[in-house]
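This part of the workshop introduces the protein records we will be handling. The question running through the whole workshop is how a given chain folds. To make this concrete, we reproduce a full record directly below:
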Amino acid sequence: MPVRKKKEWEALLEELKLLLGSLGIEYRETKRIKSDGALCLIKGKSVIIIKRNIEAEDKAEVIKREIGKFDLESKYVKPEVREFLEE
């Protein structure tokens, strides 16, 4: 896994949020969960809920773990994001 700086993690996280949107998954952050985050179904809608006070790197890792459940082959994914998801 390549070493990334904080700003690179933050930029990657923003790209991952855009990808979530293209998959119809809502992104939310909250302080009121015990885990780092997970994909949930709320009123029939897919929502990824992530702990607000964790680092961008950890948020990206949660998204990576949860987005692995979806078929991304037919979606355009920026090369740097695809590389991260395949790490």
